[in-house]
Amino acid sequence: MSLPKFLTSKTFVIQLAIAFGIIIVMVFALMKFLSVKTHHGEEIKVPDLSKMQIKIADERIKELGLELILLDTVDFKKDLPPFSVVEQDPKAGNTVKSGRKIYVKVNAGEFMDVTLPVMKNKTYRQISANIKSLGLVEGTITYKPHIAKDIVIQVLQNGKKLDAGDKVKKNSKLDFILGDGKEMFSESSFDEEQNTNEVNENND
């Protein structure tokens, strides 16, 4: 059979139709596979994880077909539960595809330790800003006879004396005993004042 006759024959037309049918089926199957693989059109609303314990948040996210990633632990916030979610990305209410990673930051379990600097024999004005920068709280101030006014004689926490290098929890309240500047001047007090001034000059 010649080529022109074969191309116009019934057999060729049938084979061509079968070939087109196979191609159409394969294209449809491929599109269906890609749709399932990429979760085409499937969107999940991100839940609000704030104040949720990290373990519970992880279980909740997995139930939705998402993945929880812990980015960091932030300084302890006393108004939030320990080890609870304080930040999340994407934010609650956003829609994402299945398998998307949800990044979170978690509240620490407690306040971190702070190392006390040298405060004794410095004026209260000198240490006040330092106390706040360390996240500590100024408590009760009492005065004791001393030649130098507002000089730090002692630092206490709940009645316990503290020294430079001691560790306390951030947000701890510190009490101070300061000099009242009313002690009578004497040779011994002159020597004490001189020593105090030398300490302050060295520390500055």
UniProtKB/TrEMBL annotation:
<keyword id="KW-0472">Membrane</keyword>
<keyword id="KW-0812">Transmembrane</keyword>
<feature type="transmembrane region" description="Helical">
    <location>
        <begin position="12"/>
        <end position="31"/>
    </location>
</feature>
<dbReference type="Pfam" id="PF03793">
    <property type="entry name" value="PASTA"/>
</dbReference>
<protein>
    <submittedName>
        <fullName>PASTA domain-containing protein</fullName>
    </submittedName>
</protein>
<dbReference type="InterPro" id="IPR005543">
    <property type="entry name" value="PASTA_dom"/>
</dbReference>
<keyword id="KW-1133">Transmembrane helix</keyword>
<feature type="domain" description="PASTA">
    <location>
        <begin position="41"/>
        <end position="108"/>
    </location>
</feature>
